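Input record (one chain):
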Amino acid sequence: MSDEDAPRALLERSRQTGFRLDREGRWWHEGEPVRHQGLANALHRWIDQLADGRYVLRLDERRYAHFECADTPYVVHSARREDGSFWLLLSDGTEERLDPVTLARRGNDLVCRVKGGRHPARLSRQAVYALGESLCEDGADLVLEAEGRRFPIR
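The corresponding structure, as predicted from the sequence alone:
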């Protein structure tokens, strides 16, 4: 390691937090669940993604720290229909409108984009059930009927 790389390596090592976000959207720290809901909410608010695809907890442009993300950074816990649109309750406690164009299959899961399209979110079983009657098959394709239109799920 060169003298120039040493400070960068030290900074990178200091950015390791021991936080992990599991597949269900629950935070853990060094193997223990994060029980304080305020801290869990703050961690969710700080989620960002670097250009290389790694997820980080970002405080500002220069300050961020890495965390392990087991699946998607957000989970859709439930969905409700209102005036033809679907509203999603996310694992960070916020609610936002589903952009049906972003709904996609990933293996056995359904995923969509949230937070202005910046992040993927996996739909929980409960959320998929809430979409239930609006999901239909069109030949071999799965389609969501919402907002007066039919959206193919890729």
